[in-house]
Amino acid sequence: MTNSGGPLLDSKGSLIGINTAIFTRTGTSAGVGFAIPSSTVLRIVPQLIQFGKVVRAGLNVDIAPDLIANQLNVRNGALVLQVPANSVAAKAGLNPTTRGFAGNIVLGDIIVAVDNKPVKSKAELLKALDDYNVGDKVVLMIQRGSEKLELPVVLEEQSS
């Protein structure tokens, strides 16, 4: 009913989100409202209370933007660009994209699934990882050249 930070209710009176902002051309309370889904609120509020911030689980690797991946002929999955030394991803064996001796681009691993849930893009990888907590163990299905491999990895806190 409101659009300035209050609850977003469905027609039955059930909470479905928290209103956060409104886009208006007139400065009035008429326009397009934006809300955070209640499922997201339920996951984030305990973290805010415990840590004072949102803690996201992740791999702490650089993933190619979809436009770059497409230009490199990667049409399915999330292309790994960089893997920091000593990261959990490096210890699990995830390979970065590199340059060959002749300066050609050698594709790194392409993450195509997380715990058997297909990943078709960078956004889908981030969404899939949102379902996990720091310390959770997941199995990444990766494409490395012409072979598919499974890499178990323990998720760490995603740096900002």
Highlighted features:
160 residues, alpha+beta, 21% helix, 6-stranded antiparallel β-sheet, 13 strands
In words, what does this structure look like?
- This protein has helices at 38-51, 66-71, 88-92, 122-129; strands spanning 7-9, 15-23, 32-37, 57-58, 62-63, 78-82, 98-99, 105-106, 110-114, 117-118, 137-144, 147-154, 156-157.
- A hairpin with a 2-residue loop joins strand 9 (110-114) and strand 10.
- The mean pLDDT is 89.
- The protein contains 4 helices and 13 strands.
- The chain is 21% helix and 35% strand.
- The radius of gyration is 20 Å and the shape is elongated.
- The strands form 4 sheets. Strands 5, 6, 9, 10, 11 and 12 form a 6-stranded antiparallel beta sheet that branches. Strands 1-2-3 form a 3-stranded antiparallel beta sheet.
Shape: elongated
Average pLDDT reading: 89
By DSSP (H or I, 4+ residues per run), the number of helices equals 4
- What is the percentage of strand-forming residues? 35-45%
User: Span between N and C termini?
Assistant: 34 Å
User: What's the helical proportion of residues?
Assistant: 10-25%
Largest sheet: 6 strands, antiparallel
**Structural class by helix and strand composition:** alpha+beta
Order of helices and strands: EEEHEEHEHEEEEHEEE
Q: How many β-strand runs? A: 13
Please state the CA-atom Rg, rounded to the nearest Å.
20 Å
| Low-confidence residue ranges | none
